[in-house]
C-alpha cells in the first residue's frame, strides 16, 4: 500500500509542478520583461504587478502544492525513487504541456530526450 501512496504523491507532484510552470510562464508573458519593467516603473510597482496577476498567484499555489506533495512522497518512499521519478516525469509533462497549452515549438531533439527520460523512469520503477 505504501507503494501506491508513493506513486500517487509523485503523480501529484508532477501535475502540480506542470500546472505551476505553465501558469507561471503565462503570467510572466502577461507581465512582460521584468528587467525593462523594473527600469520603467521601479521594483515595488513591478512586484505589485506580478502579485496582482491571478495566474502568478495560482502558479505559486501550485508549486507549493508540489513541494508539500514531495514531502509526503519522501515520507512514504525512498529518495532514490521519488526525486528522479518526480523530476523526470515533470520534464516529460512540461514538454507536452508547453506544446499543448503554450503553443511552443518542441523540436525532435526534445522529444527524443523526453523518450529517453521516460525509459529511465521505467527502469527505475521496475
Write a structural description.
The protein has helices at 2-31, 34-41, 43-51, 54-76, 79-100, 108-125. It has 126 residues and is mainly alpha-helical. The chain has one domain (2-125). Helix 1 packs antiparallel against helix 4 and helix 2 packs across helix 3 (43-51). The two termini are 17 Å apart. The mean pLDDT is 91.
Summarize the structure.
The protein is 87% helix and 0% strand. The protein is mostly helical and 126 residues long. α1 (2-31) packs across α5 (79-100), α2 packs across α3 (43-51) and α5 runs antiparallel to α6.
Write the layout of secondary structure elements.
Blueprint: H1 2-31, H2 34-41, H3 43-51, H4 54-76, H5 79-100, H6 108-125
Helix pairs in contact: 1-4, 1-5, 2-3, 5-6
What percentage of amino acids are in beta strands? under 5%
Q: How far do the termini sit from each other?
A: 17 Å
Number of helices: 6
List how many beta strands DSSP finds: 0
Low-confidence runs (pLDDT<50, min 5 residues)? Answer: none
Reading the helices and strands in chain order gives HHHHHH
Using the alpha-carbon principal axes, give the shape.
Answer: globular
Number of individual domains: 1
Amino acid at each position: 500500500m505504501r507503494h501506491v501512496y508513493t506513486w500517487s504523491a509523485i503523480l501529484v507532484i508532477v501535475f502540480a509542478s506542470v500546472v505551476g510552470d505553465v501558469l507561471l510562464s503565462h503570467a510572466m508573458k502577461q507581465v512582460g520583461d521584468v528587467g525593462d519593467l523594473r527600469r520603467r516603473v521601479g521594483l515595488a510597482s513591478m512586484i505589485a504587478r506580478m502579485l496582482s496577476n491571478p495566474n502568478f498567484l495560482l502558479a505559486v499555489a501550485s508549486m507549493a502544492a508540489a513541494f508539500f506533495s514531495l514531502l509526503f512522497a519522501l515520507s512514504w518512499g525512498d529518495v532514490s525513487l521519488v526525486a528522479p521519478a518526480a523530476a523526470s516525469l515533470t520534464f516529460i509533462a512540461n514538454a507536452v504541456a508547453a506544446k499543448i497549452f503554450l503553443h511552443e515549438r518542441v523540436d525532435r531533439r526534445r522529444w527524443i530526450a523526453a523518450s529517453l527520460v521516460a525509459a529511465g523512469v521505467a527502469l527505475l520503477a521496475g
